[in-house]
Specification:
This protein is an alpha/beta fold. Helix content is about 20%, strand content about 35%.
């Protein structure tokens, strides 16, 4: 693990009404794997530090992290960042990554939990990895979907990537499933679920519910269910 380093903000990107990405100028080698996370410390009157997933892929040549903005001091300070500001980062952390023997995987995600999954899917697409990917991505409304256009582009480039949007509120002009991710939806959209590794990332309550569905209703073994355990959600 590397020491904490200073990084300069290159660009601030608004992803949704309450989600922002911070893109940093590369400083040395991008020594991280798609799906890992980093610590981010903001310069302020008091210590402001969070653990956040990379939303970028190492194949893109920059570091980017993405956060849902809340009323916390960290979010308010992050919301004020602009180009040429500095942050302090340390990485890599975590093992929420594709392995060489992962040939068929499925991602179950909700809200801002999509960030490490976006990193992995982008890496798999850019590197043309031999892996079949199915993603079920849940949000409340159409306007809450982060990286929607990125995933649209990836689907065009990667015939082995399937993306299913699951919305709580109907959007007539957008192709999506209504409701929540449950065992019935998984069986419908991922019929070969028993032969896949499942990666779960989202709000803790959602991850717990998905683990229960996969293990108890779909009877998948523990080693087929992969989650990330870190403090930054």
């Amino acid at each position: 693990m590397a020491q904490e380093v200073r990084a300069i903000v290159q660009e601030v990107i608004k992803r949704t009404h309450n989600v922002k990405s911070i893109r940093l100028e590369p400083a040395g080698d991008l020594n991280f794997k798609a799906g890992q996370f980093l610590s981010v410390r903001l310069k302020a009157e008091k210590e402001l530090k969070r653990y956040l997933s990379f939303s970028s892929s190492p194949s893109e040549g920059f570091i980017e992290f993405t956060k849902k903005l809340t009323e916390s001091d960290f979010s308010r300070t992050l919301d004020g960042l602009k180009s040429k500001d500095e942050v302090f980062i340390q990485y890599p952390f975590g093992d929420f990554t594709l392995k060489d023997d992962h040939k068929k995987v499925a991602f179950l995600s909700g809200g801002i939990g999509i960030t490490p999954i976006r990193s992995i899917c982008k890496f798999a697409t850019d590197k043309k990895l031999d892996v079949d990917i199915a993603l079920l991505y849940a949000n409340r409304t159409f306007s809450d979907i982060a990286f929607r256009q990125d995933f649209d582009l990836m689907k065009k480039e990667n015939p082995r990537l399937k993306v299913v949007h699951v919305l709580s509120e109907a959007c007539p002009d957008f192709e999506s499933c209504m409701g929540r991710i449950d065992s019935g939806l998984i069986k419908k959209e991922v019929p070969d679920y028993s032969g896949r590794k499942f990666f779960l990332c989202g709000p803790p309550a959602m991850v717990d519910a998905m683990k229960k569905i996969l293990s108890e209703e779909l009877v998948l073994p523990k080693d087929s269910i992969i989650t990330e355990n870190f403090q930054g959600y």
